[in-house]
Amino acid sequence: MACNPKAALYIRVSTEEQAIEGQSVEAQITTLSQYCKLYGIEIYNTYKDLGISGKAIQNRPGLKSMLKDAQAAKFSMVLVWKISRLSRILKDLLFILEQLENSSVTFHSYSEKFDTSSPVGKMTLQLLGSIAEFERNTIVENVKLGLKEYARKGGKTGAVLGYDSKNKQLLINPQEAETVQLIY
Q1: I need a surface site. Which of 70, 88, 90, 94 has the fewest CB within 10 A?
Q2: Active-site residue among 14, 76, 103, 109?
């Protein structure tokens, strides 16, 4: 690390519940801030994407702002809690890291310790990125399976025109039922 480095903290939580309740947000900020204090690293800014999945980078204003500031050389390092907070898609992770590297910004993960300046460190990063993508795909598969089973048992997994959900039971909504009958 350079003398008196400046860091950008990047925080992301996937669900709106986590964002609203701050389950993971404050924990990430506190841990990363303590790390910076311990190592004499000045925090330039904390970039947040709250309630946003790590499956894509298009709709993440915090990430976009961080990359723009990296390009403008406003900090020298990015610090995250875990690689999966940056991205759960290996291709996107490598794209983000390339953008940071092109801006002479180093990347650090609090939970996963490795040096990306060596071939072994780069391989480790790629393996961890692949694992993050695998975890995401497994979560998606499990959720789909659970929703399918829930629907098979008569549960409502989304908005169903003509019905209301009361106590996990579908009941006919008389006003919407007329619309459904008209459609048929």
Answers
A1: 94
A2: 14
